[in-house]
Design brief:
Length: 461
């Protein structure tokens, strides 16, 4: 590394925007030929909702994760550079971290690999969180749900989103592979630049783009590799697939992605400020960025993510094409809801606030719900999804079965006698979704230091 740092140049490879989403092997091999100093990969997200965190199950299939991991791990060991993977198993809890750990061990046995591995744990001890809460060192973000010791107790798990520091400490221990729990999207890409004294603003801005792989190209055809070269006063970034290209606009606009502010990106130790960043084309595929700045935080904070069981869910899918029903769809659904609530009360004794019935109308406002600006129904058919959430699966399915019968035969004034207004494509009509979860934490904790929440375990593979 000394000959590389003497030249003040650091090359960082991101194989893909999410471990398990795939990348072109040809692009990865082309990247390895450029001799990156480190390979980093983000494996987590909350985009898919709370299920991964609550249920302890990754979002990507095991086979897909193993395919990506095999190529990345073999590549890193071949050119002898560190491999850093963050937010293992999508949500980065202990069960998620161990799932990826097991896959890595499996690959190592199959390929005859040996290396020094660090596991950085991110799932939080509930007693620790209660202590910090009593000390007034857990603060809400906006918007934040109620957070108390009862919330902590009923959470399936709560993770802390680590910054760069635990990665740096693990690298200083001489490890060759790092598997980390829940992490800031940029943390695994900033570790080596941080160790070697590169500009925090330059490194963090490059990391923000790298973590999504080829999301910042002009037109992405598939998830794929991106390579950034960091120097003292700028970075250059671009794709490895010759059919892809970056432009100043595509790189600059990426600051809007997954970010509340187009210029400011908050991290545990401070904020990336791209207000003065300048973007220029190096060639038709590569972009140079200067002027990115870092504002240190007054207080070091770690964001918490938690999920709890919301109940058990059963859904019913049906289609409506009758023009008479569609012309009065909102009123018809309001009357159906009232009828279902009456029937459920009559049979089970449950009041409407003791379960949840949600009706999604695809073709009208199924995607945006109350935010949909088009209020008048304009299609020739609509898809209805009746979603029932209750305390048990049996109860949810019981209510869904009653919902089916009430909905498909619900009358309208234009028709006399028995009608069938909803066509259900499946038999049985309802589908049991199982346990469903909700996020229950949007807070930050103020630790004593950047490491106390993230113990490091060294493993010889």
């Amino acid at each position: 590394m000394s000959k590389h740092t003497a030249a003040r140049e650091l090359r960082i490879l991101s194989p893909t925007g999410a471990l398990g989403s795939g990348f072109l092997e040809s692009s990865f091999n082309a990247a390895l030929e450029q001799q990156p100093h480190v390979i980093g990969c983000d494996a987590g997200t909350t985009d898919g909702g709370p299920f991964a965190l609550g249920a302890g199950k990754p979002s990507f299939p095991r086979l897909a994760v193993k395919r990506d991991l095999r190529l990345i791990l073999l590549g890193a060991r071949r050119i002898k550079v560190p491999l850093l993977i963050g937010s293992c198993g999508t949500a980065g809890g202990e069960v998620h971290l161990q799932i990826v750990h097991e896959i890595v061990r499996e690959i190592a046995r199959e390929e005859g690999l040996s290396f020094k591995l660090a596991l950085i744990h991110a799932e939080q001890d509930k007693d620790y969180l209660k202590t910090r809460l009593r000390q007034g060192r857990i603060k809400p973000l906006h918007p934040a749900p109620e957070f108390d010791e009862e919330v902590i107790d009923r959470s399936e798990r709560i993770v802390g989103m680590m910054g760069t520091e635990p990665y740096v400490r693990a690298l200083e221990m001489g490890v060759e592979v790092i598997l980390a729990g829940r992490s800031s999207d940029t943390s695994m890409f900033c570790a080596l630049p941080h160790m070697h004294g590169f500009s925090a603003g330059i490194a963090l801005h490059a990391a923000k783009i790298l973590e999504c792989g080829t999301a910042a190209v002009v037109q992405r055809k598939t998830p794929d590799c991106m390579l950034a070269t960091i120097r003292d006063d700028h970075f250059e970034i671009g794709p490895l697939d010759p059919d892809l290209r970056c432009t100043p606009q595509s790189i600059a606009s990426h600051s809007l992605y997954e970010n509340a502010d187009p210029f400011l990106l908050k991290e545990p130790d401070g904020t990336l400020d791209t207000t003065r960043a300048r973007y220029e084309a190096v060639n038709e595929r590569l972009v140079r960025v200067r002027g990115s700045e870092f504002i240190p935080a007054e207080t070091y904070t770690i964001k918490l993510e938690g999920a709890e069981l919301a109940g058990y869910q059963t859904i019913l899918i049906g289609g409506v094409r009758d023009p008479y029903i569609l012309r009065q769809l909102d009123d018809w659904l309001t009357r159906i809801r009232a009828r279902i609530e009456w029937r459920v009360k009559d049979v089970t004794g449950l009041a409407p606030d003791e379960y949840a019935l949600n009706i999604r109308v695809y073709g009208k406002n199924g995607t945006m719900g109350a935010l949909e600006p088009v209020q008048e129904f304009q299609g020739h058919e609509a898809c209805l999804i009746f979603e029932v959430t209750a305390q048990t699966q049996e109860l949810a399915s019981t209510i869904a079965a009653m919902t089916r019968h009430q909905a498909i035969h619900f009358p309208i004034p234009e028709w006399s006698g028995l009608i069938t207004g909803v066509a259900c494509p499946y038999s049985p009509a309802y589908i049991e979704r199982g346990a469903t979860y909700r996020f229950n934490v949007n807070h930050v904790v103020e630790p004593d230091n950047a490491y106390e929440m993230f113990p490091i375990e060294i493993v010889e593979i």
